[in-house]
Amino acid sequence: xxxxxxxxxxxxxxxxxxxxxxxxxxxxxxxxxxxxxxxxxxxxxxxxxxxxxxxxxxxxxxxxxxxxxxxxxxxxxxxxxxxxxxxxxxxxxxxxxxxxxxxxxxxxxxxxxxxxxxxxxxxxxxxxxxxxxxxxxxxxxxxxxxxxxxxxxxxxxxxxxxxxxxxxxxxxxxxxxxxxxxxxxxxxxxxxxxxxxxxxxxxxxxxxxxxxxxxxxxxxxxxxxxxxxxxxxxxxxxxxxxxxxxxxxx
Length: 250
Ligand SMILES: NC(=O)C1=CN([C@@H]2O[C@H](COP(=O)(O)OP(=O)(O)OC[C@H]3O[C@@H](n4cnc5c(N)ncnc54)[C@H](OP(=O)(O)O)[C@@H]3O)[C@@H](O)[C@H]2O)C=CC1
Ligand SMILES: O=C(O)C1=N[C@H](C(=O)O)C[C@H](O)C1
What we know:
Structural class: alpha/beta
Shape: elongated
Pathway: Amino-acid biosynthesis; L-lysine biosynthesis via DAP pathway; (S)-tetrahydrodipicolinate from L-aspartate: step 4/4
CATH architecture of the largest domain: 3-Layer(aba) Sandwich
Largest sheet: 6 strands, parallel
EC number: 1.17.1.8
Strand order of the largest sheet: 2-1-3-4-5-10
Keywords: Amino-acid biosynthesis, Cytoplasm, Diaminopimelate biosynthesis, Lysine biosynthesis, NAD, NADP, Oxidoreductase
Distance between the termini: 38 Å
Strand content: 15-25%
Function: Catalyzes the conversion of 4-hydroxy-tetrahydrodipicolinate (HTPA) to tetrahydrodipicolinate.
Bound molecules: NADPH dihydro-nicotinamide-adenine-dinucleotide phosphate, the ligand O=C(O)C1=N[C@H](C(=O)O)C[C@H](O)C1
Number of helices: 9
Order of helices and strands: EHEHEHEHEHEHHEEEHEH
Radius of gyration: 19 Å
Family: Belongs to the DapB family.
CATH superfamily of the largest domain: NAD(P)-binding Rossmann-like Domain
Number of strands: 10
């Protein structure tokens, strides 16, 4: 008997009752079904078992344990959680050796393009004369800073300049900071109200400034991207993918 090709894609949401989990559940399209969802006390490995793909918007402390469960199951994982460290990222990479993993600090198409532009601009504007600074603003409940998107933009600038990001990243300024180190990439994180997500990358020289600005007006822009990534990831071979892959941009 032929396989039932009309079976809906079973999507699980880790962080189901959070801001992003609710935004995703609200717009799941035809051809998909919400198979389950969990909060912080939930059984992630159990959720993975009953789904074709898991979308994960939770907290940085969950990245490592969730990556372990994904590696064991081989199930596709769409990871939007930010705030993880290098150890978490190593666990994500390990999971991606066993399962298709789509990871993005920001699932909006505008940010995919902004990140690409950031790299091109950084390659064109000499680091010695154009100072790169990234300003982000988010709602008052955001827990990590700088945002994952701000860090991704910073990495793109470092890539464009062929520098190691950790070597040029400038951390928070306070007190007697001394002059700005040449070639550094600075960050400022603002928090307030219900702002969904704003990012601005500025290249400033002695005589001019060039900037890219992205503003998300509604979480549905991230939710749509994450759902698109989930549909794309189902049935893929293991690997660590980004939204550029999902959108066919490489
Ligand atoms: N990549 C992107 O495009 C975007 C990424 N994000 C990122 O997604 C994450 C979630 O954001 P948001 O939805 O606003 O956050 P919320 O605080 O609104 O929701 C977080 C959800 O995760 C659950 N949770 C909290 N701590 C843990 C834990 N230790 N283990 C497992 N689950 C946990 C919560 O459970 P409970 O319901 O039990 O409290 C809740 O359901 C953040 O890292 C944020 O930066 C956000 C927007 C877009
Ligand atoms: O926590 C948020 O809200 C957001 N987090 C992501 C990030 O840290 O970059 C993406 C978006 O800016 C909203």
